[in-house]
Amino acid sequence: MKILVVVDMQRDFIDGTLGTKEAEAIVPYVAEKIRNFDGAVIFTRDTHEADYLNTQEGRNLPVVHCVKGTPGWELHPVIAALAEGKTIVDKPSFGSIRLGEMLSRKEEKEKIESVTLSGLCTDICVIANAMIIKAFLPETPVIVDSTCCAGVTPESHRRALDAMAVCQVAIV
């Protein structure tokens, strides 16, 4: 079984409070990747509460975003249509232990051939989840599709890809 993890393709990261033109540009590529992927697709959603600014993350990144139930928390409409009926993992931090545990349980039932990641932001949540997946599934190839990711900046996107490659994540 192959798995595609679509990380945080939410309005606030695409055209909302933390949106970038690079994030907007990858939406059609991510949608095409989902449509053509031969395997299971799992989505993550950055999920914060109204007290976000009082959290450690909020103090370090004082931009309210992805508050549960707000329009910015929702998946981009194109991606949301493709997520219907699929697994969505709400995660309160950059990386999701729940995602790692879920994949580990799947691996116990059926061999996972590979896990491919796409989404936002390469330099924060994509890299964090790639490392968590490597920890939970150390013998499973982890792949990041660089054309289906965008970082906070183009430079930080490239740095994150380089860092993941050093950690034996295949960058395609």
Which key terms come to mind for this protein?
172 residues, six-stranded parallel beta sheet
Task: Produce the secondary structure layout.
Blueprint: E1 2-7, H1 11-14, H2 21-36, E2 40-46, H3 56-60, H4 77-83, E3 87-91, H5 97-109, E4 114-120, H6 122-136, E5 142-150, H7 154-166, E6 170-171
Parallel strand pairs: 1-2, 1-4, 2-3, 4-5, 5-6
Helix pairs in contact: 5-6, 6-7
Short description:
The protein is α/β, with parallel strands linked by helices and 172 residues long. It is built from 7 helices and 6 strands. The protein has helices spanning 11-14, 21-36, 56-60, 77-83, 97-109, 122-136, 154-166, and strands at residues 2-7, 40-46, 87-91, 114-120, 142-150, 170-171.
Low-confidence stretches: none
Order of helices and strands: EHHEHHEHEHEHE
Give the termini distance in whole angstroms: 19 Å
Number of helices: 7
Major β-sheet strand ordering: 3-2-1-4-5-6
Mean pLDDT: 98
Number of strands: 6
| Helical residues, percent | 40-55%
Class computed from helices, strands and strand pairing: alpha/beta
Could you give a short account of the major beta sheet?
6 strands, parallel
Radius of gyration: 15 Å
Strand content: 15-25%
What general outline do the C-alpha atoms trace?
globular
